[in-house]
Amino acid sequence: MSVTPPPYRVLFVGAGNIARAVHMPAFLEHPSDFTVVGAVDSDPGAARSFAADFSLPHHSTDLAAALREARPDLVVIASPPVAHRRQAVAALEAGAWVWCEKPPALSLAEYDAMTAAEGAGGPYAPIVFQHRFGSGAEHAKALITSGELGAPLVAHCQTTWYRDDSYYAVPWRGKWATEGAGPAMGLGIHQIDLLLELLGDWAEIRAMAGRLARDTETDDVTTATVRFASGALATVVNSALSPRQVSHLRIDLRDATIELNHLYGYGNGDWTYTPAPGVDPARTAAWSTPAQDVPSSHAAQLRSLLADMRAGRRPRASAGDGRRSLELITAMYKAALTGLPVLAGEIVPGDPFYTALHGSVPGWAPEESGR
Known about the structure:
Layout: E1 8-13, H1 17-28, E2 34-40, H2 44-53, E3 58-60, H3 63-70, E4 74-77, H4 84-93, E5 97-100, H5 108-116, H6 135-146, E6 152-162, H7 176-179, H8 183-186, H9 189-199, E7 202-210, E8 221-228, E9 233-239, E10 241-253, E11 256-262, E12 271-275, H10 281-284, H11 298-311, H12 319-338, E13 342-343, H13 352-355, H14 366-369
Parallel strand pairs: 1-2, 1-4, 2-3, 4-5, 6-9
Antiparallel strand pairs: 6-10, 7-8, 7-13, 8-9, 10-11, 11-12
């Protein structure tokens, strides 16, 4: 007779809006699989009210104490990015799995320190990259990987959102030391991760960055051109200045164009497939979206993570798989701030961009920017 395993104990670190509005609803869909047992926040009032609102037995401002008292199996990190490395390492060393919000860390050095704290067979620390997990993305990836649409040739990845001055009035935003970088890091990383999920390894990048309208230490716009290992070329645009907001992904392959238009999440209806002239209509019928419509969401990724925890296997979006979008973004800043092309794998320990995305470049590094 099979025995139902007990629910995993979950500790939230960061009790702000994303924990309330996004993470908690996802866990509440799985009452027999997860029990949220506590909340940690640097603001004692936030931790206390979160615990009270969701009837949690533990709340604290002290992560180490919470790890001892709550004994979580999974720690959800939804705090500002400056704290991610320290909190992830503490949770992993306590034996808990980690599910960490984007951006995963402030630098490749911090991310590598996080993954170094994983065990050989777990615990693991996947990153929240929920756009990979919708049925639309899974379907597109299967078609591209199978070669059904032909070789990828041209792509465009666009995150053009709008964030006003009040958004950057939050003390940790717009600063290298606490946010890591500008909109490529804080806004566009999800769409960049999806681009890499669909097109695979990249080979070379050239880029530009600007401070055009917001009083930030970091940038407010980046643009880049990327050459993929397949030979495909892509443009990547990230903006915090765009009144008509859109997240747009377009991939032109030999036999079809795939397009995705959404803002903060998509369903099957947000994907379109346009066949190249002369393509047999009998083929295109198989390109229609899947019968099941699974929106991109934290809930979709959580279902995948739950299966991995039960199986004891490494989850998607962890280790090198979770690192690749951060590596591309780091290379984007190195290319933009130095004016030189950057190759994949080039940024290693000893490179100034490995430890900070401003790379200590005069005019961009905090001590030189005057901001």
